[in-house]
Write a structure and sequence with these properties.
Length: about 50
Amino acid sequence: MLSEELDISPARALNLFYNTETCKQLSDERIELYLMSDKYIVDNIINEIRM
């Protein structure tokens, strides 16, 4: 979904994902980001990249 939203290769999207705070938050049980939809997480990543 990230690669489609940003019109980039899947490999580049994966690299972007692994270097975001959102990725770190997905494994933090206190934040519970893992309960959110894929679209919500992709939007979060895009917003983080734009900052």
